[in-house]
Specification:
Layout: H1 2-17, H2 22-56
Length: 75
Amino acid sequence: MISNWATCDLITKLYETNRIHNRIYACVHALLGDDGMIEFVGILGSYPAVSALLNAIKMPPPQGVALPFVKPRST
């Protein structure tokens, strides 16, 4: 169970500070190994870029798919 919390902590700290505490890194690294850490952090790094791109070009969801949230009004 500690790996689940460490993974959540890693995501939170990475997005909040762009850093990962050594203790959190060690817990997640023990679970994923070197290759897994590179892949995991790479995915976490690309998510904001893809989100920003899709929002910037106002990409709609696929036809017939409902948004899982209330869409804010445009400003």
